[in-house]
Design goal:
The protein has 19 helices and no strands. It is mainly α and 504 residues long.
Length: 504
């Protein structure tokens, strides 16, 4: 009895914050929205601070008691000898001389100003094209930000605050990623509150300013905060990339994706969606990365709508998004998701279509990480065989007419070629098996013939003459054939005719 295939279903309530505030949650925030996550994080930090204070007070008290005990014990002992004082003074003098010589041969270590340090950090190396490109982007973003702020009354003040903050972030590169994120989010929140007061509640104006602030800051800080060394983002990138490669055999039918790639327009939308999600890694600003995800999702909705000839539902969208991610295998997927989560304007992730599509992408990645046979309506044995590469799933064969029609999709043709290659591999294995069998048969036949010839030779040994008989010349003649020995009359035959040359 076969089990009924079940599609991938995700209740829309699962996309929302677990606190029930109505905003979108995120796996990076343990299912909470950015607001609830910050509140929860603040409570945890306050609790940790209180515990640290209590521990510090206890340790200080213990240290004071130990010091008092040592001091009381030292008073009862004789004072330090003059020789010990001489050794101590000698050690200090030696250390001072070494430090003096070291400073003499060490270049000047004048502490640069914050502006000089930031310029040195952001200035490109002559041998690095990537650094030059980053510097060009940073300068371009600065010019655009200044042009945007010129009409604003407090534009100069906003620019000074943003520049000062980005310069201060250079000295925080060794901080943990969560701490860097908290610094940026605090700056966003404080600036947004001041802008709301200044513009008297004009949300659209505030959002436009915050978008430009985010673009300017994150373009300049991208190299510092994207996939920092203090995190395991790179390790997660390699893990999800390896996982997606291992799942290359997953088909549309297994995921119940309502998309027909045999339709040319649908195939074009699928290719565009794959391109958009891959292009996300080339962007520096979180808003631009989110725009790639949104554009990818809209292409997915178009492909579903063309296939079904009706509007797509959420249950149709998520399986298709999972299929697109599996086919695209986007570079540095986890790093990009974490970067958006940490440094994007929080209001954009909490509401709107960008937040909705980003939350679905996080769910798709989480589904891929936990994908098993039950999710694809496969037994555990079948799933392991597919994952190990021992078995490939059978794809539906397309007819000759459809494969030759102008509307056949490129991906469909690739599937057909893969099926043909699989068939050729089986036929080649059969040919090799028959060739090995033929080689074995030839060896057996050769051995059989050799045995038969040997047995015949042993049954009929060759006749030999008396070795004492000699010829007239005194030599022993070779064994004559039976015909020549019996034909005595031939001895009197005339010699054979010799060829003669006639003069012309």
């Amino acid at each position: 009895m076969t089990s009924q295939r079940r599609g991938i279903h995700l209740d829309q309530s699962e996309l929302l914050c677990k606190k029930g505030c109505g905003f979108y949650g995120n796996t990076g925030w343990q299912g909470l929205c950015s607001k609830c996550w910050r509140e929860e994080n603040q409570r945890e930090k306050q609790k940790q601070i209180q515990e640290d204070w209590a521990l510090a007070e206890r340790l200080q008290k213990e240290e004071e008691e130990a010091y008092a005990s040592r001091h009381q014990k030292a008073q009862s002992q004789p004072t330090i000898t003059p020789f010990s004082k001489f050794e101590e003074r000698k050690t200090k003098e030696k250390s001072r001389k070494v430090n003096t010589v070291t400073k003499f041969f060490t270049p000047s270590t004048k502490t640069p100003s914050k502006k000089d340090a930031f310029e040195a950090q952001s200035s490109p190396s002559p041998s690095s094209s990537t650094s030059r490109h980053s510097s060009v982007d940073s300068d371009h973003a600065t010019r655009e930000f200044i042009d945007f702020l010129k009409p604003l009354k407090s534009g100069r003040e906003i620019f000074k605050q943003c520049r000062a903050f980005t310069e201060s972030m250079v000295y925080k590169r060794d901080m943990a990623a969560d701490e860097l994120s908290e610094c940026v989010q605090d700056f966003y929140q404080n600036l947004s509150d001041r802008l709301h007061t200044q513009f008297k509640g004009s949300s659209e104006h505030v959002e436009s300013v915050m978008d430009e602030v985010e673009k300017y800051m994150m373009t300049r800080l991208y190299k510092e905060v994207f996939c920092p060394e203090t995190t395991d983002d790179e390790k997660k990138d390699l893990a999800i990339q390896k996982r997606i490669r291992a799942l290359h055999w997953v088909t549309i039918e297994m995921l119940c994706v309502p998309v027909d790639e045999e339709i040319a327009e649908v195939s074009d939308n699928v290719v565009k969606a794959i391109t958009d999600v891959i292009e996300m890694d080339s962007k520096c600003v979180p808003k631009e990365k989110l725009a790639c995800i949104t554009l990818c999702s809209k292409h997915i909705f178009n492909a579903i709508k063309i296939t079904k000839k009706e509007a797509a539902s959420a249950d149709d969208f998520l399986p298709t998004l999972i299929y697109i991610v599996l086919k695209a295998n986007p570079p540095r997927l986890q790093s990009n998701i974490q970067y958006i989560t940490r440094f994007s304007n929080p209001s954009r992730l909490m509401t709107g279509e960008d937040g909705y599509y980003f939350t679905n992408l996080c769910c798709a990645v989480a589904f891929i990480e936990k994908l098993d046979g039950q999710s694809l309506n496969l037994s555990a044995e079948e799933f392991e065989l597919y994952m190990s590469g021992q078995v490939s799933p059978q794809r539906p064969q397309s007819t000759g007419a459809s494969s030759c029609s102008p509307g056949s999709s490129a991906l469909g043709q690739v599937h057909e070629r893969l099926d043909l290659l699989a068939g050729l591999g089986e036929r080649q294995e059969q040919v090799m098996e028959k060739a090995r069998q033929l080689e074995s048969d030839l060896i057996d036949w050769s051995d059989d013939v050799e045995q038969k010839v040997q047995s015949v030779l042993e049954s009929f040994p060759p006749e030999t003459q008396d070795p004492t008989a000699t010829t007239a010349s005194g030599t022993t003649p070779a064994a004559s054939s039976a015909i020549d020995s019996d034909n005595v009359e031939n001895e009197h035959l005339p010699p054979p005719l010799q060829p003669q040359v006639f003069a012309g």
